[in-house]
Write a structure and sequence with these properties.
The chain starts with 10 loop residues before the first strand and ends in a 10-residue tail after the last strand. The strands form three sheets. Strands 6-10-9-8-7 form a five-stranded antiparallel sheet, covered by helices on one side. β2 and β3 form a beta hairpin. It folds into two domains: about 100 residues, Ribosomal Protein L22, Chain A (Alpha-Beta Complex); about 100 residues, no CATH class. Helices cover about 30% and strands about 30% of the residues. It is of the alpha+beta class. The structure holds coenzyme A (COA).
Length: about 240
Amino acid sequence: MIGDLFPPDVVAVTDAELGLDDASLVASLYPVEIEQIGAAVERRKVDFAGARACAREAMTRLGVPAGPVLRGGRGMPVWPPGVVGTLTHTHGLRAAALASAGRVRSIGLDVEQHKPLGAGVLEAVSLPEEAEWVRAAHGEVASIAWDTVLFTAKEATYKAWFPLTHRWLGFGDAHITLVADTYDDGVALGTVRSRILVDAHAVDGGPDLVEFWGRWAVWDGYVASAIVLRPAGADSVGP
Ligand SMILES: CC(C)(COP(=O)(O)OP(=O)(O)OC[C@H]1O[C@@H](n2cnc3c(N)ncnc32)[C@H](O)[C@@H]1OP(=O)(O)O)[C@@H](O)C(=O)NCCC(=O)NCCS
């Protein structure tokens, strides 16, 4: 399902595809990665290792040598030259999505459990018009946690934004528009538009980050959003 969020030139891998148990995932860490995560609780270590095992499989599929993925400034993953990517983990699912930097400028992926946000969280992470939209959408289709869909779109936006700006982006700093495309048998798919409301200057030499496009999905107890930003001159919309 994660693969359905991306165009064909983005390689998305989930840990379910790898068939490795928790001990094998942790054992697959590089010493430099263990230096960063060694003191964490076991659950965090397994998530960290699981996402990186997915990233290494994606590197292999992309045709680049698989290597360590360190946490850089403010937690941003550090990729080999010529590669862009993103990591996510939630209970029961770890994933990575990578692409060639020649084809994709930045990627953001966020997966959460498909359940409503806690009391008061929607108000804390949304603009008033977004919260209003979420309440209206819930009135129409109550089986989808629209607040959590919005939340994943915000976090995916941040993950795509930060590597290009090295700046914080608050929850009120982007206006998310969600459109539902299909809803069938508990699986919902749609599009995400993130309009940046603050200084959109990028530090990678590319154009300002005026808006991002991507896709969202709900399936099998999970909700995810994915942003794919193309280099200048290319279409930024997903599949
Ligand atoms: C960073 C953040 C988005 C991570 O999301 P999360 O749901 O907590 O965690 P996930 O498991 O989905 O993702 C974790 C991965 O995010 C990535 N990540 C963390 N900081 C990052 C950053 N500054 N830039 C890009 N990716 C980052 C890392 O790869 C991390 O994996 P690791 O910890 O194994 O190295 C979140 O903690 C956060 O700080 N959000 C506030 C900022 C925001 O979302 N603003 C909204 C703008 S509209």
